[in-house]
Amino acid sequence: MKQIRQFPAVQVSAKGERSVLYGHPWIYDAEVTLPEGVTPEDGSLVDAFGPKGAFLGTGFYNSHSKIRVRLISRNANDTFNEAFFERRLRYAWEYRKSVMGPEDLRCCRLIFGEADQFPGLTVDRFDNILVTQTLSLGIEQLKPVLFPLLVKILREDGHKIDAVYERNDVAIRALEGLEQGTGFFPLWESPLPGMPSEQSVMELPAQTMICENGVKYYVDYREGQKTGFFLDQKYNRQAAAKIARGKRVLDCFTDTGSFALNCALAGAEHVHAVDISSPSIEVAKANAALNGLESRMSFEVANVFDLLPELEKTAKRQYDMIILDPPAFTKSRKTVASAERGYKEINYRAMKILPRGGYLATCSCSHFMSEDLFRKMLWSAAADAGVQLRQIEARQQAPDHPILWNVPETNYLKFFIFQIV
């Protein structure tokens, strides 16, 4: 007997059905047809069916978005009540407890969007503060349920959470018909017991402090880039720091100094940290002072694309190790070729500056710059620089940013350490 469904039904094309059956949760606008008389409310749940009537899953519908349906379940028996979402949040938290060391749970990504089956949702933990970014309408409407539940789960496990701060100051929200904005989420309005009071939240300072890999940082969760700090390179910083002992290091695109500080704390002879942003360099200096590392570090506000050619002319062999951690040079397929030129330029220059036997740590955080393309770029840069690359490590993002093989968008960070030979 056919099951009676409570949600509006949408029909999915054969192409869309293939994508879903391969495990991808997105169904695009061109792949969705609404039966006559069916007009789902944006942000509500719909059931998706294939061309021959096969049930494909249930997901959030949004007529404003090119991603017309974001599936959250392929189980026809799921009931999407508070208990369902609490189980899913607990599953994400238990996963972090399994793959991260206990000391790392105080600063980690708790929810990584589609990889945790919460499409469009990011939640980062910085000690007592959770910082969120919501990029889908369906999740936006679920915030009053999800955020208090997550705080409750962490508190029950002995973790003190004082506030949830929303960093919805990203233009991509417009693609979902959402406005931009920032501010504390009103946990005090939740019916769940033990939520922080409005007064206690409003008295919180604009910065919090974290400790990652033994390095202390000030995190400006209200004004800093993205959610305030880049957690995905956590273990890559350790890998670079291990190589940096006793060496003179140049850290390019340092932001608030994370790679540089790890290298200095690990025993680098000296670390020079460079970024184009003066405010970021000021935070990096403050972080150096916080860790007592000022004597072995120096800082410079400069455009790396201008600095590296100058160093190639005037300061060859000045550094034993160069770290390249640039921002994403491309956020679409249309600009991949331009991004590849940018990546090649900085890597080529670094290879020319380093002496034989020197070390290069380099990465890309753009999903559209695939690993194959990044490897080919490095090969070409090395050939033009007249050097060979001895690979030491090939790494990806930390496991609190899990990669779902059927969702390639979750696989974005490429990180390599080489010796120049």
Strand content: 25-35%
Strand order of the largest sheet: 16-15-14-17-18-20-19
**CATH homology-level superfamily of the largest domain:** Vaccinia Virus protein VP39
Please outline the major beta sheet. 7 strands, mixed
Mean pLDDT: 95
Q: Could you give the count of β-strands?
A: 20
Q: Structural class of the secondary structure composition?
A: alpha/beta
Number of domains: 3
Radius of gyration (Å)? 23 Å
* Secondary-structure element pattern, one letter each: EHEEEEEHEEEHEEHEEHEHEHEHEHEHEE
Q: What is the rounded distance between the termini?
A: 69 Å
- CATH topology-level fold name of the largest domain: Rossmann fold
Can you name the CATH architecture of the largest domain?
3-Layer(aba) Sandwich
Dominant shape:
globular
Give the helix proportion (percent range): 25-40%
Flag low-confidence runs.
none
* Discrete helix count: 10
The CATH class of the largest domain is identified as Alpha Beta
Describe the overall structure:
The protein is built from ten helices and 20 strands. It is globular, with a radius of gyration of 23 Å. It has three domains: 9-73, Archaeosine Trna-guanine Transglycosylase, Chain: A, domain 4 (Roll), CATH 2.30.130; 82-202, 2-Layer Sandwich (Transcription Regulator spoIIAA); 232-420, Vaccinia Virus protein VP39 (Rossmann fold, 3-Layer(aba) Sandwich), CATH 3.40.50. A hairpin with an 8-residue loop joins β7 and β8 (121-126). A seven-stranded mixed β-sheet has the order 16-15-14-17-18-20-19, sandwiched between helices. It has a six-stranded mixed β-sheet with strand order 2-6-5-4-1-3. It has a five-stranded mixed β-sheet with strand order 7-8-9-10-11. 30% of the residues lie in helices and 25% in strands. The relative contact order is 0.09. The chain starts with 8 loop residues before the first strand and ends with a strand. It is α/β, with parallel strands linked by helices and 421 residues long.
